[in-house]
Amino acid sequence: MVNCQGRGALKVTVRPIGLEFPLACAEGRVKSAYHQIAVSETYKHETARARLAGREIGSELEDELRSSARKARLLDEQVPADTVRVATDGWSVGEIAREVVGVVKWGAGGGS
Q1: pTM of this prediction?
Q2: Rounded CA gap, 11 and 43, in Å?
Q3: Which segments of 1-112 does DSSP mark as H helices, in order?
Q4: What residues in the chain have per-residue pLDDT under 50?
Q5: 31 neighbors 25 (Cβ within 8 angstroms)
């Protein structure tokens, strides 16, 4: 969240993802701005297996794979329609963030 008070404008920069947007400030009041959006990652079964295999061993791996598959089904059935779904197979955190920013058009005055 960003707050400003007094006449003028701020340029808000989110460096990790290369995002900038202006925030107009008003005399005599504090103005707050924030962007919030629901985001859910998606990935193929093979990606889930590789990620889980990197941190689970033995029978715990199979338990986690079953749990992951069950949760994926629930998300597919229950995720709200306005949730941004981002496929993350082979993507870095920065690439995922840029994709989300592009989808919600934060740099173009969109978002909520």
Answers
A1: 0.50
A2: 35
A3: 45-53, 59-78, 93-104
A4: 109-112
A5: yes
